[in-house]
């Protein structure tokens, strides 16, 4: 079987071509060589392997069981070689062409749009089509090359790369806390004004966990519900009540003091499942250079931990 290692890639390609077409003559016509030359090379393969690969008939050539088995592995080898060749070719090139990106509205405004000028300066042959929406986009039907998604990741037929963890804070303005008092436990939120995000699945639930204890949900009430996170954040800045939002949205307000973290000893979330910020792309063996370059750019830009979680607040 050592002779198997001596089979050339060219011979493997001819073998797979015969397997696909079931004809020496058709492969010979496509390759511009004689049928006898194709037949001779297949015979040399069979001699090297000690296995008959084809049954020869007057009108067709059919694979034996050994031929089908070799064909399965030969196709994988040739596909991997083609992929390697494409990757090497792209390595010598610059990312170029249009890349279609879909992202949530607020996250796109705060953490994608501010970096686009640098991205385009780094890759001047790249053009970006950025669509921002909080509506559900089916990743299997969407035409986008890259989707930024936030939440609990599931198996959607997409591949992805985690960009950052989704962390939450409960917060209110100093004006509101001076007027209404500072809640010391989640139970005391029943006496406070809570500003609730209401998405496609209904009003947001608030979960709390003290170190060493289980997550618990608490009843909420307040003067405002809405489906726009920035509007609710502005209401909190204006002293209307408390909000519970991810740090990527309110970190700057927490740092400059216009919002203050409430119940800092508690972990807070709107879900009992781990949430992530991720870049998703259609499944497949080969990731295009432009998509890989954009993902790598944002991975480096966000950092680990993400820049919005650095510094404390």
TrEMBL record:
One of its GO terms (biological process) is DNA-templated transcription. It holds the Pfam family HTH_1. The keyword DNA-binding applies. Keywords: DNA-binding, Transcription, Transcription regulation. The keyword RNA-binding does not apply. Residues 7-64 form the HTH lysR-type domain. One of its GO terms (molecular function) is DNA-binding transcription factor activity. Belongs to the LysR transcriptional regulatory family. This is HTH-type transcriptional regulator DmlR. It comes from Polaromonas vacuolata.
